[in-house]
Amino acid sequence: MAIRSKSIKRTLLGIFAGIALLIMLVIAFISPIAKYCIEHYSEKLTGRKIEVNWVYVNPFTGAADLHGLKIYEYQSDSIFFSANEASAHIAMRKLPFKTIEITNLTLDKPYGVIRQDHDYLNFNDLIKRFTPKTPHDTTKASIRFSLLNIKINDGDFRYKERSIPVNYFVKKVDISSTGFIYNVDSIEGKFYLQNGPGKGTVQGTFSINLKDLNYRTSVLIKNFSLDILQQYLRDFNSYGSFTALLDANIKATGNLKDSLDINTNGFLAISNFHFGKTPGDDYVSFNRLAIAMKEVSPRHFEYILDSVTLDRPYFKYEHYDHLDNLQMMFGEGGSKYTAVKEDETKFNLIVEIVKYIQELAINFSKSYYQVNKVAIYNGNVVFNDFAPREEFSVAASPLYFRADSIDKDHSWINLALNTAIKPYGSLGVEVKLDPKNYSNFSMDYNLQKIAAPVFNPYLISYTSFPLDRGVIGLQGSWVVKDSMINSSNHLIIMDPQHGKRLGKKDTKWIPVPLLLSIVRAPSSVIDFEIPIRGSLSDPHFKLRYAITDVIHNLFVKPPLTPYLIHTKHVEDQVDKFLTITWATRQSELLPKQRKFIKDIASFLDKNQKGLLSIQPMIYTAKEREYILFFEAKKKYYMKARNVTALSQQDSVRVDKMSIKDSAFVKFLDKWADDSMLFTIQDKCKKIVGEEAVNRYFSRLDKEREKEFLSYFDSSALKQVKIRPAQYGVPFNGFSNYKLIYTGDLPPDLLKAYWNMNEIDNGTIRDPYRKQRNKDKAMTDEKMTKP
Fold first, then answer.
1. What is the pTM of this model?
2. In a domain, 191, yes or no
3. 493 in a domain, yes or no?
4. DSSP state letter for 152
5. Are strands 539-541 and 525-529 parallel, antiparallel or unpaired?
6. Is residue 399 part of a domain?
């Protein structure tokens, strides 16, 4: 018995040893066998070549580790997906019960690339290969599959679109999830990633129902660069620069099948937004757009916001001889954008964002909305027109807008806008709007203290006459019910005076002096009431009152001719003693100006207590523009005539030459040779050079000062002081020397002052005395900085 017992023990020991040896042999050889099978049969099974550095497989514990995993593109040596390590554990004990349960799946440093070219995606072959050719048989018991504890560590995922093109990636991707169980519909997890090419992070949590695709998420976005949109912009045009940062802290629920099925609250902000021609040349920008949401639910037609604020917005609109700055970028009428939008084979993120915003806008109009505050702070809206013979520029800055307690259930929404107008003036608008019917509203506006000479670029182009005086005001009150207008509008132009005709080849001629004499009242004011009736789509301007005033002037002014002549003479006398006006590029005084300066010099000689201060007021932009035009036309003229210097007659011809002359424009296009230069000014600057303009401008200042002082002898010069020049936009629209007297005043000036005061306080001008006093501070040669 003892011998048999020992024999049994030896047999059992041998069996266990054999089993142990078999296990070790299986573990030792199955891993290299698995590596061999993966690398040699992967292309046949998946259509993709797969490589691994080494493999560890334990069939008894269900552990599998792939190190140095590389999956290649279809029929290519480019990497589709890789990972430093991919590990998983399978619950082996559940396999006999038709249950595949992966208890954990970890990808360490995974790298993946999605490539797209129109409809083509680099994983289309995988979808085609693994899509069942026949419908799934639901009568048979299927295998139950669960995937638990999913982790992605330090991932790097890239998206490349060839047709646009787009090249974008995210890095440091960490994703962890409890995974999903075969009999449970939902999956939960959290994520973190960093912007690849730019800065910023995104992190949050998510929960998705895999059956009905309902989701819940919480997302925190910090300082995330939106530069990816720059790449999609190239699909619309060949140039353009875009940058912006996104911050958000939002919670949302919804359904992935319906983009409007979303309910969200939280905070969203876009900051450092810049979009324009090139970096530094913005068309649109703002410091920060912030939206604080209490509850936004397109699905339930409800938009409840705490605030919408926009800080330091900037918008620049430029009009050229052909198209404008936006159409130059996006095509005439937005044709480039439309072409991309209609190309259904191409995905463009900007188009999809615009489509979604349009959907929201339609939904918003049908919804209940409430916003506690809407505000715009320190805005700047710029309009530049390069179509006239010289640049016209105006800006609304700083601009402020505010609307409080916007509620669709309220009777009225109150809106208010206030802005300064650059170079001169201001605008205030107050609106009451019916939130249930936008065709019902009332509006009061007041546009005041606009310098009439600001419009000289248009006046010179279309009439040949500039204005050197005049203050424009426009006030109105509108009541609109069901789109039907009942409005009163009051236009008043104080003391409009035309300057000398500037005859150029590219200017039209209209008899402005005659027209002014007709429309201007004896009080030297144009004062019209212009009611507007009709509908918003077809307004009717009632000009009866304006026509009546004109007819009144025709009958009243002839008997007042002596008074009007006297008034004009007195105004000219006052102007002569207070201002020396320089025409653009002019450095020599006119005969009448020289005579006046000699008289002033003689007065100072006789009155040693008298002092004269000269304040140069230089219209910087206009002087530089005229220098630029002249020098560019001179280069063209000398090349066309094959001359090396200009005679006096040649200079006159160059000066009168139109900047829109077809031959000159062709010359600019050829020698500037830059498709990104849209204006005559930019092309001239490319040819002439900034340094040359600066040099001529500086010389002009010195020559004017030298010319002015040359009429004073050494004794009188001690009584004359030239102040540092002020550079900007003079109120009268021309560079000038402002004359400031101290001590004894010239008798003719005293007499002119007395006569002017008598005229202003007379019966004819008395109704406008207060208005004149308000505008006086503006017309006393104010200067706006450029």
1. 0.87
2. no
3. no
4. E
5. unpaired
6. no
